[in-house]
Design brief:
By secondary structure, the protein is mostly helical. Helices cover 61% and strands 12% of the residues.
Length: 117
């Protein structure tokens, strides 16, 4: 069984919501104030702030206060934790399906009638 990684769980939890994914995607183009991020969502500011808090707790974004404005920026390196885990799981499953394919090929060979001369 894979070792439990709390940070990985927080990342997938944060990415599991389409609003948070949209916010993160917008931040991929550069840092933005919270008010600019909130505008296209149609949500009240407190709702957007809760989404941003989940993203920040997962380490996917950083926020900083600049005067009266809270600026958000993406932390793309955090996604490497998730992509590394996904790559490992994918490799394991591909190895399993390759072994299954090889096994099924041996079964087909056993079922073939003797070749005729």
């Amino acid at each position: 069984m894979a070792q439990h990684n709390a940070n990985l769980s927080r990342i997938f939890h944060a990415l599991g919501d389409p609003t948070r994914r949209a916010l993160l995607q917008r931040l991929g183009q550069g840092a933005l104030p919270v008010s600019v991020l909130a505008a296209p969502t149609g949500f009240a500011l407190p709702t957007v702030l809760r989404h941003l808090e989940v993203l920040e707790q997962a380490g996917l974004i950083q926020t900083e206060k600049q005067g009266r404005t809270r600026l958000c920026r993406a932390v793309p390196v955090t996604l490497s934790v998730a992509t590394d885990w996904l790559a490992t799981v994918r490799a394991e499953w591909e190895a399993r399906t390759d072994r299954l394919e090889e096994f099924l090929a041996t079964l087909e060979d056993d079922d073939d009638p003797e070749p005729r001369d």
